[in-house]
Amino acid sequence: MKTGRYFIFSILVIFLIMASCNNETGNVSTDVVHNPITASGDGDMGDLPVLEFRETLHDFGTIIEGEKVTYSFKFRNAGKMDLVITTVSASCGCTATSYPKDPIPPGGEDVIAVTFDSRRRRGFQNKTVTVAANTQPNKTVLRIKAKIISPNDL
User: Would you give the distance in Å from CA 146 to the centre of its chain?
Assistant: First the structure.
C-alpha cells in the first residue's frame, strides 16, 4: 500500500517540476538588454538607456477622502539604446500604476500613470512608486503626496 502512495507522490512531484519549467520567453528581445557592468567596474555606460523624468514628485494638494486621483509622470529615453521598463511597484495597495510594456526607443517618450485611492485615508499622505528598468542605476523612485480631508470638514 505504501508503494502505491510513493508512486502517486512521485508522479505528482514530476508533474509539478515539469509544469514549473516553462521555457517561454516574453515579448522583449534579448537584443535590447545590455549590461556593460563588469566585476572590475570597467564598463561602457555611455550606450545605456537613460530614464529621464520631467519631475519625480507630484503633489495632489488637498483632496476629499474617497477621491481617486491620477497623475501621469512623463519621461523620455535620453540614452542610446532601447529602454525596457521591467516593473513598476507602489509602496501601498492604495496606489495603482500603469506603464508601457514595449521598449521605448532612444528619444522616445511615454508616461507612467499613478492612481491614488484616498478611501479610508486621512491627513498627509506620501507614497512612492519604484520604476525598475535596464538603466544604471536600475531603479528610479517617483513620489506622490496629498493632504486628505474628510467630507465633513467642508
Answer: 21
Per-domain boundaries in the chain: 48-153
DSSP state of 8: H
Which CATH code, of 2.60.40.10, 1.10.150.450, 3.40.50.300, 1.10.533.10, is assigned to 48-153?
2.60.40.10
Element (H, E) at 90: strand 85-90
**For the residues 107-132, what does the mean pLDDT come to?**
97
pTM of the predicted structure, to 2 decimals? 0.73
Cα 153 to chain centroid distance, Å, stands at 36
Question: Cα(first)–Cα(last) distance of the chain, in Å?
Answer: 73
The answer to whether 49 and 108 have CB atoms below 8 angstroms apart is: no
Instruction: Give me 149's grid cell.
Output: 480631508
**Average of per-residue pLDDT across 4-14:** 69
Reading the block at residue 97, the C-alpha cell is 500604476
